[in-house]
Each structure stands twice: as C-alpha cells, then as structure tokens.
Design goal:
Radius of gyration: 19 Å
Shape: globular
Catalytic activity: (R)-pantoate + beta-alanine + ATP = (R)-pantothenate + AMP + diphosphate + H(+)
Bound molecules: adenosine-5'-triphosphate, pantoate, beta-alanine
Helix content: 25-40%
CATH superfamily of the largest domain: HUPs
Strand order of the largest sheet: 1-4-3-2-5-6
Largest sheet: 6 strands, parallel
CATH topology of the largest domain: Rossmann fold
Number of domains: 2
GO cellular component, one term: cytosol
Number of strands: 9
Keywords: ATP-binding, Cytoplasm, Ligase, Nucleotide-binding, Pantothenate biosynthesis
CATH class of the largest domain: Alpha Beta
Family: Belongs to the pantothenate synthetase family.
Organism: Sphingomonas suaedae
Length: 280
C-alpha cells in the first residue's frame, strides 16, 4: 500500500490507475479505524480493482467547543489494517495541504443538511460537504462508499453529488454494530465501561420505537417513550425523530421512513438510526 501526503503524488498515482483503465473505489474517513470502516473497505474491494482510503480529521466540520483536539488518532494501527485489507493507496493530507493559506470556498447544501445534526452542530455539514467535494476532486473516484451510521451525512453527500454533477456512484453501507447492538464509532473509545454498558439503550430505544410505529402505534407516543428510556439510561437527548428517508423532512405516506437519534452520555455524543417499514 502506498501512503501519500502530497497532492502532486496523489495525482500521479491516480493518473496511473486511470491510464491502466482501472476503476477506483474511495472510502473517506477520519481514521481511528474499526470494523465499520473495514466493512466500507470490503465493499470497495468488491466494487473496483483499485481502492483508495483517506484519513483526514477535518477541522472545518467540528463546531466550536467540539472534540477536534482529542479526536482519536491512530495512524500506525490504521495503516496496518488498511494494508492487510488490500487497500492500494492511503491518502493522508496534512491540514495545510487540504486548506492552504487563503482557502475561502465553502459548500453549503441547503434543506437536507438543516434539521437534526445540522441544527445541533452548526457548520458541521458545510465542513463535511466542502471537504468531501475537495476529496472527490483530488481522488477522482468512480465509486464512493459511506456508512448509513451517519445517515444524514450520506443524504447531504448524495444531494451535493447530484447538484454539482459529480460523476460518482455514491453507495451507502449498512451500520456495523457491536454484539449488544451499539453502532461502532470511533467516539465509542471515549466511553468509560459503565457508560459503554448504558449506551446500549440507544439502539434498543430505536428498535422498540421502530417496531411500535411499524405495528401502527402513534409515532409521537413511540418517540416520547424512546426519549424517556434514553433519559432513564443517563442520556441527554439532542433529538429522536421520524423523518422521510430521502428529504429528512416530514414523513410522506407510502415513502421510506427513518428514525434517527442523537444523545450524549457522560459528554460523549452518539448517533444512530434505523429504517421504519410501513405499518402492517
Ligand atoms: N458502524 C459503522 N457502520 C458502517 N459505517 C460506519 C460505521 N461507523 C462509521 N462508518 C462510516 O465510516 C466513514 C468514516 O467515518 P468516521 O471516520 O467519522 O468514523 P466514525 O466511527 O463515524 O467516527 P465518529 O465517532 O466521528 O462518528 C463514514 O462514511 C461513516 O459513516
Ligand atoms: C466523510 C468524512 C470523512 C468527511 O470528513 C467524515 O465526515 C466521516 O468520517 O464520516
Ligand atoms: N462520522 C461523522 C464525522 C463527525 O462526526 O464529525
């Protein structure tokens, strides 16, 4: 696996793949890799002969006061995992390569980025859209893979790709979970053992609410029950909401729906989401 940190070197390597007629699948990450990321890499390996992974902890997507400084960084372990998984190229630009002095362009995707995490984390999705657009222009992938764990992020990227005419096939990969159901996340390492044990309330509350709504119970009552069980487990709840799976706005009869939540336990903010089928 080549590890590249400068843009001209990346351009040379990508031109080499293209000259050989090889399609490229791309997995953008912020590192501290776990089995969730590796599921994206495995899908990428199936999708194209060349796989590029990026690791870049993007300062622009952290709102003021968030965990940018203490975000886990595990460069050597990450690099070993990616090499063992058969990744061709690891793109790891320093901050000054991504945002040289004078960088002044911001990409704001309206609508789908505004509710939920967009409301809770001001500027977050502008930072995500801006860095993902730059990564797409740098890597020039044919296919890009994102996790459904960050469901709103996936929707924002799909919107941006459609609106800006990126010729990239964006694919979502189902959320990978620990044995007890907690979604894998780099931020899980922040959890003390007792908080990690309580955190299972998040997937459980979403599962219970989704099943209740699917069998025709009142959605608002199911959401209130989910909120109460999260609070009983020690969470401060940012939101628990049922939305239209495409627009992330008000659910539309007959259209796919999604139940999303964000909540903090002992200061660590976790997100999760599940699909909700039509009432039986
Ligand atoms: N449990 C998971 N299952 C599937 N995909 C995941 C999972 N966790 C992260 N991903 C995906 O991996 C990509 C990189 O995510 P990122 O590096 O931010 O990891 P993370 O674990 O989501 O970290 P964070 O703690 O910041 O949420 C994203 O597309 C994200 O949706
Ligand atoms: C897509 C991403 C790599 C952009 O920084 C990040 O938001 C993430 O890891 O999900
Ligand atoms: N996994 C999304 C990146 C973030 O929370 O900033």
């Amino acid at each position: 696996m080549q590890t590249i940190r400068q843009l001209p070197d990346l351009r040379d390597a990508v031109s080499g793949f293209r000259a050989a007629g090889e399609r490229v699948a791309f997995v953008p990450t912020m590192g501290a890799l776990h089995a969730g990321h590796m599921a994206l890499v495995a899908e990428a390996k199936l999708a194209a002969p060349r796989v590029i992974v990026s690791i870049f902890v993007n300062p622009k997507q952290f709102a003021p006061g968030e965990d940018l400084a203490r975000y886990p960084r595990k460069e050597q372990a990450d690099s070993r995992m990616l090499a063992a998984a058969g990744v061709d190229l690891l793109w790891m630009p320093p901050v000054e390569v991504m945002y040289p002095e004078g960088h002044a362009t911001n990409i704001a995707v309206t609508g789908v980025s505004e509710p939920l995490d967009g409301a809770a984390r001001p500027g977050h999705f502008d930072g995500v859209a801006t860095v993902v657009a730059k990564l797409f222009n740098q890597v020039k992938p044919d296919i890009a893979l994102f996790g459904e764990k960050d469901f709103q992020q996936l929707a924002v990227i799909r919107r941006m790709v459609a609106d800006l005419d990126f010729d990239i096939d964006v694919r979502g990969v189902p959320t990978q979970r620990d044995d007890d159901g907690l979604a894998l996340s780099s931020r899980n390492v922040y959890l003390a053992p007792e908080d990690r044990a309580s955190a299972v309330a998040l997937p459980r509350a979403l599962g219970v609410a989704a099943r209740a709504i699917e069998k025709g119970d009142d959605a608002q009552a199911a959401l209130a029950t989910a909120r109460a069980s999260l609070e009983a487990a020690g969470f401060d709840v940012d939101y628990v909401e049922l939305v239209d799976a495409a627009s992330l706005g008000t659910p539309v009869a007959g259209q796919p729906r999604r139940l999303l939540a964000a909540a903090r336990i002992a200061g660590t903010r976790l997100i999760d989401n599940v699909s909700v089928a039509e009432p039986e």
